[in-house]
TrEMBL record:
A Pfam family that the UniProt record links to this protein: GST_C
Organism placement in taxonomy: Bacteria, Pseudomonadati, Pseudomonadota, Alphaproteobacteria, Hyphomicrobiales
Designated name of the protein: Glutathione binding-like protein
CDD domains named among the record's database cross-references: GST_C_Ure2p_like (cd03178), GST_N_Ure2p_like (cd03048)
Domain GST C-terminal: 108-234
Organism of provenance: Mesorhizobium liriopis
Domain of life: Bacteria
Length: 234
């Protein structure tokens, strides 16, 4: 039986199954990446909901694991060398889980780098830009008379959708024929444009046919459905 008592986060979110990966997350586009990957990889894990609506990610217990107060984060009792590993940043978590299992990240060096390229495209572009667009479009637009921020992030989001659409022309998945952590990182953000922000019309999402077909393929996967469900993703 693994002993996780050295990690203060387990005081607020006790582990019922300390031998499993502990997932601390919430149903945001970033938050569901880890739960989807865990489901796809078939790794035993235990879910702890960290409500960002209640600022639980800012509590001392959560900050003891992730000083950047962002979800998701994981605690793997069987990390490298058999020692417990605490890890945060969704991209790093996806790479770690893929390398731990030898799945969802190609072993071939060129294909591996292509996959990581598109993963970082999401981390550095899609997530921040879609997130800022959503903030100004759904949450802050009424309070800000200057529409330039909204227009800037709207236009950049449409540009990024165009990049994705071109990449998916003739491809099943972002990095080629194989479903990968690049897809898991990215499609929850495209999904959020519809389900979270209600912005499919203002962005003309239906015009990006390759993107919408790819999103449908991803959402049809049973592991994706379960990964969304466990965090009550909206």
């Amino acid at each position: 039986m693994a002993d996780l008592s050295a990690f203060p986060i387990t005081k607020r979110w006790p582990a019922s199954h300390p031998d499993r990966i502990q997932l601390y997350s919430f149903g945001t586009p970033n938050g569901v990446k880890a739960s989807i990957a865990l489901e796809e990889l078939g790794l035993p894990y235990e879910t702890h909901l960290v409500s960002i609506m209640k600022d639980e990610q800012k509590t001392p217990e959560f900050l003891s694991l992730n000083p950047n107060n962002k979800i998701p984060a994981i605690l793997d009792p069987n990390g490298p060398g058999g020692h417990p590993l605490a890890l945060w940043e969704s991209g790093a978590i996806l790479i770690y889980l893929a390398e731990k299992t030898g799945q969802l990240l190609p072993a071939d060096p060129a294909k591996r780098l292509e996959t990581l390229q598109w993963l970082f495209f999401q981390v550095g572009g899609v997530g921040p830009m879609f997130g800022q667009f959503g903030f100004f479009y759904k949450f802050a637009g009424r309070e800000i008379e200057d529409k330039r921020p909204l227009e800037r992030y709207r236009d950049e989001s449409k540009r990024l959708l165009g990049v994705l659409d071109k990449q998916l022309d003739g491809r099943e998945w972002l990095a080629g024929d194989a479903y990968s952590i690049a897809d898991i990182a990215t499609f929850p953000w495209v999904r959020a444009l519809k389900t979270g922000y209600g912005a499919e019309d203002v962005l003309g999402l239906s015009a990006f046919g390759h993107v919408t077909a790819w999103l449908d393929r991803a959402l049809a996967r049973p592991a994706v459905q379960k990964g969304l469900e466990v965090l009550n993703a909206k």
